[in-house]
Request: fold
Amino acid sequence: MTESKTKNKLSLRTRALVEAAVMIALATVLGYVRLYRFPAGGSVDFAMVPILLYCLRWGPKWSLGCCFVNGVLQFFLGGGIAISWQSMLLDYVVAYTLVFLCGFAAGKKLGWLWGTILGGFGRWVSLTLSGGLLWYMYMPEEFLGIPMVNPWVYSILLNGLLIVVVTVVNLIVLGVFQAAPPLRKSLMARQN
Reply:
C-alpha cells in the first residue's frame, strides 16, 4: 500500500471516529430534552437523530460501534432503569446497537426513510423481547382499553407505540434535513 493511500485510510478512520464521538455526545445531550415520557417507560426525544445521521453517512460497518457505545451511555448517563443485567442489555445495549441497521440504507435512494424505519424496527425487536421475557410482571390488566392477558401482546403494543412515535419524530427531522439542500449535502452525504 502506498504512503498516500495509508494516510487517506488513516484520515478516513480518524474522521469516522471523531464524528462518532460528536454524534454520541450530541445524542446524549438531546436525550435530556424529552418531548414526552411514557408512564410505563421510554420517552420521545431527538436523541436518535444524530445516531441515524451517522449511520446514514458511514454505513453499517462504522455504525455498529457507534450504536453500541451510544447504547451503553444511554443506560449510564440517561438514567436507565433495569431490573436485571438482562434488561440492561436488551433495553439499552442491544436495542440501541440494533439501530446500526439504518446503516444498510446509506447511499440508497430514500435511504434516510428506510434506514430510520429499519433502525426503529431493530430497536423494537429488542424492547419487545425484554418486555415479554423480563418486564411481564408489571403488565397492567388493561392497556389502551384492551384487556391484557398475554405479556407478549402487551410488550408488542407498548413498545410498538413508543417506537412508532419516536420513528415518526426522527423521520420528520430527517425529512427536513433531506428537503434542505445545504443540510442534505453536509449532514447526510455518504462518507465511505
